[in-house]
Amino acid sequence: MAAAAITAGCAGGSPASGPASAHPLAATASMTAMPPRAVPPVFAVSFAPATAGRAGDRLALLSSRTGDLVRWLTPQPQGASDQVLSVRDGWVYFVRYPIDLRSPGGPPSPAIWRVRVTGGQAQLVKSGAADYAVSPDGHAVAYVISADHGDVLDLVARNLVTGRLHTIILATKPSPGANNWPPDVSSLTWAPDDVHLAVQLSPTAALNSVLVFDAFTAATAGDGRTAPAPCPVDSACGEFDPAYLASGALTYLIQRLSRSGIASANLVAWKAGHRTTLVWMAAGTPACYDMTAQGQAIWVTGPVRPKGPSTIWRWSGGAPVQVAALPPLGTSPYYGVGAIAW
User: Fold this and answer.
1) Predicted local distance difference test score (pLDDT) of residue 264
2) Residue 178 has what pLDDT?
3) pLDDT at residue 54, as a whole number
4) What percent of the chain lies above the pLDDT cut of 90?
5) What 3-state class would DSSP assign to 222?
6) Which residue, 341, 238, 316, is CA-closest to 31?
């Protein structure tokens, strides 16, 4: 069953503005000429329903070569939405968000779940968390929670071997009249050193930052390190979706919008104070995106025209490859990809 028969579009993806880490990636000023590397055979997506209602996004596994549906991973949740976070060691991690955050008894909490790529019953990993990442050595985890009755947004790092727990305050609730709470936090990722964490923090839709923390010493968002602003004065831009490579370089997307309204995006790597462009995405700006530690990227570009088809792309060196074109609104029960992970 082809993805083109299931879904289209991509809802999601939020801007950002600045990372850090440590030497340009292996060699050349541009890595776009690198020979392609092998790509994972499958990727996970969150498919959104075409019609609004109590049913939310549903998880599926697709072929990286053709975009065909391999299997559904979760049934469509009622009153909630499943957003994929990562694929690791044969598991797909995802966050289940309640659709209605204004329940009379107080806001229901999101929760982290995981399901095997082979399918089966999903397992609860952490309740009350909105993002989740496992360190490369598997000895630590990090997650994002709201504390103090929802007035504080925390990034928590936990060493699974020693039991050590450390909290970084990302944000505190502003005045009751403010409309920018809670901030959006996404793309939580560990560095290969199992010490540093990167995360995309978006206090508002217009303000976005990719921040790098020492997982067990940083105290507040102010301790996060960022890269220099990459934007020319005549354009607005943001940095999105941090992901570490096995080399220690931090990759992320830079998306620009010029004063003439033309959008563009490129994938870059940051290490030791140097930024290297990996590939320009001339075919459109990604609406949702993911990168593996081995340097393979996958993303979805939104429709060129309203309610039109969207496109899934992959990159592993060389030019981006189109995986599948997705159908326009009205031709399938699903329309929109809320998140994607490799």
Assistant:
1) 81
2) 64
3) 83
4) 53
5) helix
6) 316
pLDDT tens digits, one per residue of 126-143: 999 999 999 999 999 999
- The answer to whether residue 25 scores a pLDDT higher than 60 is no
Look at residues 195, 185, 90 and name the one whose alpha carbon lies nearest to residue 135.
195
CA distances (Å), origin 5, targets 8, 68, 303: 9, 9, 16
Higher pLDDT, 227 or 81: 81
Helix H or strand E segment including 268: strand 263-271
Q: Tell me how far apart the alpha carbons of residues 279 and 295 are, in angstroms, rounded to a whole number.
A: 12
Sequence-ordered list of residues with C-beta below 8 angstroms from that of 185, at least 6 positions apart, any chain: 130, 131, 144, 153, 155, 170, 199, 200, 201, 202
Q: Is the peptide bond before 182 cis (omega within 30 degrees of 0)?
A: yes
The amino acid at 123: Q
The most confident of the ranges 101-105, 125-129, 236-240 is 125-129
Structure tokens at 59: 């998880």
Joined tokens for residue 128: 């009350």
Q: Which domain holds residue 21?
A: 3-341
- Residue 234's contacts (CB-CB under 8 Å, 6 or more residues apart) are 258, 259
**What are the backbone angles phi and psi of residue 6, rounded to the nearest 5°?**
-115, -45
- Helix, strand and coil content of the chain, in percent to the nearest 5, comes to 0, 50, 50
CATH classification of the domain holding 92: 2.120.10.30
DSSP 9-66: ----------------SSS-SB-TTSPPPP--SEEEEEEEESS-SSB--EEEEEETTT
Q: How far apart are CA 37 and CA 62, in angstroms?
A: 19
State the greatest distance between any 2 C-alpha atoms of the chain, in Å, as a whole number: 57
Determine the pLDDT at residue 31: 38
Per the structure, the count of domains in the chain is 1
Length of the chain equals 342
Q: What is the DSSP letter of 35?
A: P
Which of the residue ranges 32-41, 257-266, 271-280 would you say has the lowest mean pLDDT?
32-41
